[in-house]
């Protein structure tokens, strides 16, 4: 499939160049409509059937499982990545003295989750830094991660794509090394899943957690999680009535069942149904699967190539190798530039990006077009 600009499917202003999906993704028009339909239903709760508490959840889990090449039974609905990390780490066997590996400048939710786990289990937190002077920045960083994983490693927790600079981690190679050494592999997929192909089985991922409000084009305060079979016998963080085997029998809920639902369903957050917000996510997942992440990423690469040419003209660099993601990347500024001032200048021209460190973080999606890139370039040299 070859995509063209999909901006008409969103409610973005025509005079705005929103190059900041990694900050928060916009929702689709049809997601808006789905939420409004659900809101209309909330006006008449006597029309809500008991099955309505479960059917939307089932559909979303099935769609997400299809997106990441998993089984629906291994998907859980959680409120955040930190909740998902807590589920995974709380169900890991203690390994005194072993390594817990992450990367430098990992998002705080992942860093602190792993740091606290290492401290509680007398483990050693190992943070892998890149060689900032290396000409092959991303490749070098990936190699350092692989070298660090050995028989003394209990767990590796990293993002699929680094949230600050867009470095793409080689999940397949890292997952293989984890498997060879008996280490648990936990991935924060927030900054790639929905835009970049994901295959949890091929990549050897044990737990994948994704906030939905970025590349899944979903609502805030909701996340989707995959927990592999090694977690099937674990314990949830809370005792929700919905994760027991008799939960769909409303008249028999006090016929207390000790048995949890199979697979990852036991890890669902309480009040899993998420009326109003879950319909938003369902529609976005349907659309993403129709577009396909492969076609979306190819479209994004075409836009990034225009910026790489622009950077080259200015004597600056923008990597196009496989260790730099095509949808999220750091745009280096000329020496002496104040990135916050540059950001303000861009916003005056209705061009929106983020500042991360000393660079602009640009993130493109299928609602962007070459005109947005030209407006960004124009605003940078004005």
Automatic annotation (TrEMBL):
The keyword Ligase does not apply. Residues 53-374 form the Aminotransferase class V domain. Keywords: Aminotransferase, Hydrolase, Pyridine nucleotide biosynthesis, Pyridoxal phosphate, Transferase. It comes from the Bacteria. Pfam families: Aminotran_5. One of its GO terms (molecular function) is transaminase activity. This is Aminotransferase class V-fold PLP-dependent enzyme.
């Amino acid at each position: 499939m070859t995509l063209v600009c999909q901006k008409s499917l969103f409610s973005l202003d025509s005079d705005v160049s929103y190059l900041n999906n990694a900050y928060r993704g916009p929702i689709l028009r049809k997601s808006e409509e789905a939420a409004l339909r659900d809101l209309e239903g909330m006006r008449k709760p006597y029309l809500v059937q008991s099955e309505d508490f479960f059917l939307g959840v089932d559909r979303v889990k099935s769609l997400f499982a299809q997106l990441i090449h998993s089984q629906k039974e291994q998907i859980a609905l959680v409120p955040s990545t930190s909740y998902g990390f807590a589920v995974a780490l709380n169900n890991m066997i203690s390994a005194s003295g072993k390594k817990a590996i992450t990367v430098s400048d990992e998002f705080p939710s992942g860093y602190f989750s792993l740091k606290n786990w290492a401290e509680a289990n007398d483990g050693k937190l190992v943070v892998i830094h890149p060689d900032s002077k290396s000409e092959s920045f991303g490749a070098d960083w990936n190699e350092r991660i692989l070298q660090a994983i050995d028989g003394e490693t209990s767990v590796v927790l990293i993002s699929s794509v680094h949230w600050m600079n867009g470095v793409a981690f080689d999940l397949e190679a890292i997952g293989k090394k984890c498997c060879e050494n008996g280490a648990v592999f936990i991935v924060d997929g927030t900054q790639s899943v929905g835009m970049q192909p994901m295959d949890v089985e091929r990549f050897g991922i044990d737990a994948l957690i994704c906030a939905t409000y970025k590349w899944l084009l979903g609502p805030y305060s909701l996340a989707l999680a995959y927990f592999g079979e090694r977690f099937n016998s674990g314990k949830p963080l809370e005792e929700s009535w919905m994760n027991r085997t008799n939960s769909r029998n409303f008249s028999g809920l006090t016929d207390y069942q000790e048995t949890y639902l199979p697979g990852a369903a036991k890890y669902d957050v309480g009040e899993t149904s998420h009326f109003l917000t879950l319909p938003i996510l369902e529609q976005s997942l349907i659309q993403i699967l129709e577009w396909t992440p492969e076609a979306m990423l190819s479209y994004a690469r075409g836009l990034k190539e225009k910026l790489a040419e622009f950077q080259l003209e200015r004597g600056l660099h923008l990597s196009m190798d496989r260790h730099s993601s095509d949808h999220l990347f750091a745009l280096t500024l000329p020496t002496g530039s104040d990135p916050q001032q540059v950001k303000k200048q861009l916003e005056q021209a209705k061009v929106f990006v983020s500042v991360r460190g000393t660079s602009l973080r640009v993130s493109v999606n299928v609602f962007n077009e070459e005109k947005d890139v030209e407006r960004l370039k124009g605003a940078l040299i004005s």
